[in-house]
Write a structure and sequence with these properties.
By secondary structure, this protein is mainly α. It has 4 helices and no strands. The chain has one domain. The protein is globular, with a radius of gyration of 15 Å.
Length: 82
Amino acid sequence: MDTKLTLKLNQKIITDAKKYAFDKKMSLSRIVEAYLQSLTSEKNETDFEISPFVKSMATGVNIPADLDYKEGYSDYLMEKYK
């Protein structure tokens, strides 16, 4: 069952997010839903990968588009379990 949610966000974020959704041919609601699901689910059950742009909207931190998070995580694990 879908329920309406009202959010108060910075206008630039809204404009950028709408453009991103349009470019991806997805609704902004679907993107927000998938992002919130990824935050609240132990297992990633989304049917698409959350882009660095969308991740950065939540934190306000710019994440490079070419960021290799898998390599970074691998490096972290190698250091952790030395």
